[in-house]
Specification:
The structure holds 2 protein chains of 2 kinds. Chain A is mostly helical. In chain A, 51% of the residues lie in helices and 2% in strands. Chain A has 7 helices and 2 strands, in the order αααααααββ. In chain A, strand 1 (169-170) and strand 2 (175-176) form a beta hairpin. By secondary structure, chain B is mainly alpha-helical. Chain B has helices at 29-40, 47-59, 66-78, 82-95, 102-117. In chain B, helix 3 runs antiparallel to helix 4 (82-95) and helix 3 (66-78) packs parallel to helix 5. Chain B starts with 28 loop residues before the first helix and ends in a 13-residue tail after the last helix. Classes of the chains: A mainly alpha, B mainly alpha. The A-B interface holds A 1-4, 7, 51-57, 59, 75-76, 78-82, 84, 87-88, 90-91, 93-95, 98-101, 103-104 and B 7-10, 50-51, 54-56, 58-59, 61, 77, 80-84, 86-88, 90-91, 93-94, 117-120, 122, 124-130. Chain A: Its main location: mitochondrion. Chain A: The chain crosses the membrane at residues 112-132.
């Protein structure tokens, strides 16, 4: 049950996306002689290209002109009488994209990575500006002299003389081991 | 063909559950196939039933047996719907995923039906390329 229900939920969630993606071609083809509304009527059966839904609720092209109608008539007869072009035309009447077209790779990843780096760059600029204009002056304890005196004081106090800090100082030769 | 457990809510006429914790019978592969062949063999099947059946079948974690696809293609013929027949072939090819040897086997098994009904494969129509 799970994978079917998820498919349906995913289906519902993608409907919002499909509103943008089921291009005006779909809308125009369904609203032949009716007034064209700006919004897609979601109470009507919709078309979508999905790998897991091979047969959508309605055909791609609803409003058929005379050539299409005659082709549909021919479809009622033996299919071996149809030429390759006619078969392809029948497919294209009912469906928008073929499976390979649905699965075609997009270049979206480049936009994503590029956008990421742009934002990293902007953040970097903000950080640099901040270090000049926002941070207070550095405390005196960071200065070279202060640090040297601090190290000497720690050695004099024999900080961690067995395994740590002072253990690494050679008191005879007055240098680091 | 490798299969997962089927769900209870597949079709209105599917009485069998196949969850391990139930005490009811587990459906065998043959029973599953037979059920689907019967579904598509309905003489007065309508377009909605074909749609519902195919979309449900493709939702399962399996590639349908040739006899099920054959039954579905014949249903398309009764509905005068060549486009859906080609779409079904595309869908089962997609279902095989990385196993590239399943689809040629299917086509080989379906060849008599395809010639009889005059269905061209997507490859013959050049629709398997972008």
């Amino acid at each position: 049950m799970l994978h079917l229900k998820l498919g349906r939920v995913g289906c519902l969630l993608t409907r919002r996306a499909m509103v943008a993606l089921t291009d005006s071609g779909a809308r125009l083809s369904t609203h032949g002689h009716h007034e064209v509304s700006d919004q897609l009527d979601m109470s009507q059966p919709m078309y979508w290209d999905r790998l897991d839904t091979p047969l959508p609720d309605r055909p791609w092209k609803d409003v058929l002109d005379a050539t299409d109608k005659s082709l549909k008539q021919k479809e009622k007869g033996p299919w071996s009488a149809l030429s390759k072009e006619e078969k392809i035309a029948l497919y294209r009447l009912k469906f928008n994209h073929t499976y390979p077209e649905m699965k075609r790779p997009s270049q979206e990843w480049k936009t994503v990575i590029g956008g990421m780096f742009i934002f990293f760059g902007i953040t970097g600029l903000v950080v640099i500006w901040q270090s000049f204009y926002v941070y207070p002056p550095q405390p005196p304890t960071f200065g070279e002299d202060w640090q040297a005196k601090q190290v000497q004081r720690m050695l004099d106090m024999r900080i961690n003389p067995i395994e740590g800090f002072s253990a690494k100082w050679d008191y005879e030769k007055k240098q680091w081991k | 063909m490798v299969r997962e457990r089927r769900d209870l809510y597949s079709l209105p006429d599917a009485p069998l559950a196949s969850r391990c914790y139930s005490h009811s019978k587990v459906e065998t592969d043959e029973e599953f196939d037979a059920r689907w062949v019967t579904y598509f063999s309905k003489p007065d099947i309508d377009a909605w039933e074909l749609k519902k059946g195919m979309n449900t079948l493709i939702g399962y974690d399996l590639v349908p047996e040739p006899k099920i696809v054959d039954s579905a293609l014949r249903a398309c013929r009764r509905l005068n719907d060549l486009a859906s027949a080609i779409r079904i072939l595309e869908a089962v090819k997609d279902k095989s995923g990385p196993h590239k040897d399943i689809y040629p086997y299917l086509i080989q098994e379906l060849k008599p039906t395809l010639t009889e009904l005059g269905i061209s494969t997507p490859e013959e129509l050049g629709m398997d390329k972008l």
